[in-house]
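Marked as duplicate of an earlier ticket. Keeping the data here for the record.
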Amino acid sequence: METEEIHRGLDTLVAWQKAREIMIFVHKQIIPALPADEKWDLSLQIRRASKSVMANTAEGYGRFYYQETIRFCYIARGSLVETYNHLVTAFDLNYIPRSIYDEGVALIEVAHRTLNGYVAYLKRNKRGGELPGGRLREMSSIYEWESNNDDIFTNPQSLIPYQRGAQ
C-alpha cells in the first residue's frame, strides 16, 4: 500500500476522524487549562489516552485481518473511556469549566458511537461470515464450535479445544 493510499483511506475513516477531533480538543482546550503542577500527572495521562484512541484506530485500520482490526478498535475504545475519565477528573477538580467539559463529553459520546458502529460494520462484513450449522465463538485464545444442528458432530471429542503441545 502506497503512502498516498494510506493517507487517503485513513482520512475517510469516520472513527479515526472523530478520534482526531478528540485529540485536538484535548490538546487545545484541556491541556492549556490545567495547572502547572498537573504537567506530569493529569496532563500527561489525558494526552496519552487521547492520542491512543487515534493511534489504535489507525493501527487497526492498517491490519489485514478483520479480527485484528476489531481488537485494535476495542483498545481504542478503552483509551476513549480513559480519556473520558481524565476529562471528568479535570472537571471535578475545577480545572476546566462546565462548557469545556460538556463539549468534551459530547465529542467522546459521538466517537464512542462511531467506534461501536465501525466494530459492528467489521463484524457484519467479516470474510466468511456465519459458518453452516453454527458459528465460531472466541474463548480467550482458543475457538469452540457452537452447533445449531446436533447431527453435525457424532464424536463429542471433536469439540475438545486445541491444547498446545498435545498431539
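See parent ticket for discussion. Residues 55 and 110 are 18 Å apart (CA to CA).
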